[in-house]
Design brief:
The protein contains seven helices and nine strands. It is of the alpha/beta class. It has one domain: Rossmann fold (3-Layer(aba) Sandwich). The protein has a five-stranded parallel sheet, sandwiched between helices. Strands 4-3-6-5 form a four-stranded mixed sheet. Strand 5 and strand 6 form a beta hairpin. It is globular, with a radius of gyration of 16 Å. It starts with a strand and ends with a helix.
Length: 184
């Protein structure tokens, strides 16, 4: 069996950057592609970045127990992890990673308590705000919504097995790499 690592952390903390770098070093690592009801951002590709689905399709996945976890994120769009690809990757012995929100973490902890839960933290609140503003991909209202969610996520840091502070990308990547590949 492979190891399932569940990764979470506030918006703009660098989860995606860490995962991209991890996959460049270790293409054998399987990363789940979430389904979402939000529209694609410029440059995102369906099936690669996310599975962009309608509200009706998302409802069907929920009712058919096709999602390992799902939640409404930032009070607006729904995200979820398709169940079967996760089970297949773990059964095949691949190191597997889910990048999900706090509600999803809590659901996976109930359904797959053997998973390893990792929180990616910013070096400071001020740095998190700077990174979010620097992305320039969200409106002011969306940034405020995301920061409200980030405060709730930071308050739940003790619910995780490990914390990786993303203050230096190389050091954070090395730490995450060790966690994900530990079971091999």
């Amino acid at each position: 069996m492979g190891r399932l690592v569940v990764l979470a952390g506030p918006t703009a903390v660098g989860k995606g950057t860490l995962l991209k770098a991890l996959l460049e070093r270790h293409p054998e690592v399987w990363v789940s592609v979430s389904a979402t009801t939000r529209p694609a951002r410029p440059g995102e590709r369906d099936g690669e970045d996310y599975h962009f689905v309608s509200d009706e399709r998302f409802d069907a996945l929920v009712s058919d127990d096709g999602l390992l976890e799902w939640a409404t994120v930032h009070g607006k769009h729904r995200y979820g992890t398709p169940r079967q690809p996760v089970l297949d990757a773990v059964a095949a012995g691949r190191p597997a990673v889910l990048e999900i929100d706090l509600d999803g973490v809590r659901q996976v902890r109930t359904t797959m308590p053997e998973a390893h839960f990792v929180f990616v933290a910013p070096p400071s609140w001020e740095e998190l705000v700077r990174r979010l503003e620097g992305r320039g991909t969200e409106s002011e209202a969306e940034r405020e919504r995301r920061l409200t969610t980030a405060r709730q996520e930071m308050a739940a840091i003790n619910e995780f097995d490990e914390v990786v502070v993303n203050d230096d990308l190389d050091a954070a990547l090395e730490r995450l790499e060790g966690i994900v590949l530990e079971a091999r």
